[in-house]
Queue: 2 jobs
Job 1
Amino acid sequence: MTDRTIVVSDLRDAPHFFGTVANRIWRSWWEPRGFPLSHITGLLEESLADGAESLCLVAHAGDRFVGTASVIASDLEERPNLTPWVAAVWVDPPFRGLGIGGDIVLKAACAALDTGAGAVHLCALPGKRAFYERLGWRLDEKDVGADRLEVFSMHRT
Ligand SMILES: CC(C)(COP(=O)(O)OP(=O)(O)OC[C@H]1O[C@@H](n2cnc3c(N)ncnc32)[C@H](O)[C@@H]1OP(=O)(O)O)[C@@H](O)C(=O)NCCC(=O)NCCS
């Protein structure tokens, strides 16, 4: 029987999801801005290197891709001094509303804080505020940049 339990893996331990993760991130955030797929595959490859600052998590049910979230050094050019960031949070539509998005966001935040950072950051469009605040993220700033992004943080306790 196929195992349908959803688990979250480091992409280094589940590299066969590389293409799917790259595709989802590209289609959601980079293709609309005219970037080629190779732009995101290059960034994602950096997270596979030993000792990399970045990390990509993938949620999957056996070989079925479910969702992804990343930890990256820098995500917002208006806030170059803040690091690290949780970014590229995505759950495939059939799996939404099951708590998976919240789970991978918190796992990514914990991984970032485990590296010794005092705080981890995240930026999102205003429509996502309720989702992140419910997970314990603190709203630090509003109306940042042309996209009027909101900036959140989570702190080591
Ligand atoms: C945002 C996203 C990752 C949430 O994933 P998910 O697996 O559905 O998240 P969870 O199941 O943990 O949480 C869903 C809950 O958050 C709420 N939620 C999701 N998106 C929300 C939003 N934009 N505003 C407010 N609440 C939201 C849902 O209503 C749901 O609440 P409920 O449990 O009371 O019904 C998913 O909708 C997604 O991939 N969206 C497209 C990509 C995206 O916007 N990523 C975030 C970029 S900052």
Job 2
Amino acid sequence: MASAEVSNPYLPLLRSSSSAIFLLGAGISTSIGIPDFRSKDGLYASLKLEEYGLNAPEDLFDYEHFCASPAGFFKWSLDSLTLQTTGSKFHRFLSTLKNLHRIYTQNIDGLESSSGVPDSKIVHCHGSLQNSTCQTCNHKCPTPSFTGEVPLCPVPTSPLVVGPRTSSRGKKKQKLTCEGILKPDITFFGEPLQSVVSKTIGKDRLKSDLITVVGTSLKVEPFSKIVNCFEGKKVLVNRDYVGFPGEGRWDCVFLCDSDEVVEEEGTTWREVVKGVFLGRGGVWCEERYQKLLSKKKEKGQGQGQGQGAEPVVVETVTCDACMTKTGKPFYTCEICEGFDLCEGCVGKEEGGKRHRVEEGEDHRFRFCA
Ligand SMILES: [Zn+2]
Ligand SMILES: [Zn+2]
Ligand SMILES: [Zn+2]
């Protein structure tokens, strides 16, 4: 197919919208050094388990594990989290938009807000690091800066709780403050999702004419289902092509880094197939794209109509290198849908002979737990 070179085709689309919604993932913060979770170089893959007293990477955000031994989480926070307040170019762009209706973000870094987007326009689907809540008395406060220690609630206990003074002065140390654990307000596994998410979706459902999904592989539920909740044009901005979740299709796809899609000039865009534009930070493989499309058609026919948008949750896979069956955790190629590796095989020769990586392509493996 002949491909035409064009100047940034996303901005006119966005400007023609009267009410724009954004669904954001970790990809919008990687340009300023905040790692994503599940990619090959992401947080889970590089986590030193022993150092933080974890049995598995996902223990880090497991609510039960946290309550039982919070020290590991706060040690990790000191080593790995910065309460960064300067967002990426994309964050700053969002704060200037007049037609912004709402942002639904998976990110917990709070950068949408600190970059100037009004809080009323942001829905933190997985909570935010900015504030913490005492697990004992529910006291809410800004998250104390990470010191490596478990932060304890400073609320004074009432005189009634302190109890009568006894003669044995100094022998029993009275607790003068609550000393409950201050947990950052991010959603851990095993915690209910923020109810504000579905409430706001209910309000926004028919209000937007453009939904832009940015920097996310749309593999984490329930976030992946949100796209289908809205009316309006559906647009993907991501380094790699991601199939549309459930029924329906993308109206437009921009393969690039998120900072690039808001650049007025600087990138020459190529329309690789109709409606799919490739920028300089993007990855394109026509073969994989066709594969995804044909798979989708098969699925659609097999399931009949009206099946809704239930993503398939895969619990066991066959490792495509050693061909043994493996449960979670496993690793899946972000480009080749359905190409999976077990823990023993990931990192060895990029998945072996059966993994077809063309020259210049970047196939990262995502950690599935
Ligand atoms: Zn407290
Ligand atoms: Zn294997
Ligand atoms: Zn691959």
